Amino acid sequence: MTDETVTAQRLVRRFARETNLLVSGRDFSVIGTDGVAEALRALLPALGAHLGDAGVVFAPGGTPEILLDGEALPPRERAEDRVDAAGRHMPVATDRARRLRENGTVRGVRIGIAMVLEPKTAQLALLLRDAGATVAVYAHPDEIDVEVAEVLRSRGIPVDGDPSLSGAAERAAAVSFLRRGFDLLLDDGSHLIRLAHEESLAPQLRGAAEETTSGLTPLRLMEREGVLEIPVIAVNDALTKTSFDNRYGTGQSCVFAIADALDDAGIDLRDQPAVVVGYGPVGEGVAAHLRALGAQVGVSETDPVRALRAAHDGYRIGRLHDLAPGALVVSATGAPHTVDAEVLRTAAIVAVAGGVPHEIDLDA
User: Fold this and answer.
1) Which has the least CB within 10 A, 42, 123, 197, 241?
2) Residue-by-residue DSSP string for 245-288
């Protein structure tokens, strides 16, 4: 990989990291004619961006500059800045919250949010509160930005969750959150929905929403077995979720995070053999972003139609055990034990985009 290509990739990843915005579908303009500028003009369309004379401006030069809406990137040092910046780039959520406030739909409704606590989640909580709901937030110890949590608390929204908790203490904190008493529960991974059933707290809920593929799988099993006690909105079934958030959002965030980590280890993605396990919407996005950053991508998929689609999208297809040796393996199945002991022995690097416990079989 040339120095110019490395710099271009790092500029794009810096934009994504500092703004938490998608690259795909966005307008970019690139100023200059040097090697970095030319590398940006090649990279951005590969990531699904549009090149033109407006939008985000990259001005590579002696001191590379990125402008958003004509201004320098928003400050990120303080959590307050990150939360407020997220709010400025959530126009649809803001508009929907305004309508909820005007028609009083959620006025007085008690809503529990159990999601990864980062700036966008904080904005969701604030928007629902401002629309008239009574809101509290819970986050798993591994999924809480403690500074963002403090911002919410300072603005009057209770936050339960502590990164120091584990085991029984973690479960007790989650149960205590549920005992606050909610009408609606917005969940990510269905952990709190299932816990409410285990603790006989489900009857207090009018309903819930679950936003992930992996979270809906156990809930559908509960429904088939007749033990799901509340209605659940399957947010992940919405095409705007599956086709866009899963493919583009998860694809970008996971692959850029992998690239950042490999930078620290002195490893370039370009020409790195990579295997994406699973070619659902998440796998499609991961594969596309890996290829855009220069990796040599193969796909392992047990569904024959999805495997055929991967082949027609230009990826090598094959068995995971055959493709894994020396490769970056990214599991996008959302299924436990996808990456077994043999893969761990032969792969060069392993990462997860699927997001369920034990997707990597570490016990093996």
Assistant:
1) 42
2) IIIIIIHHHHHHHHHHHHHHTT---TT-EEEEE--SHHHHHHHH
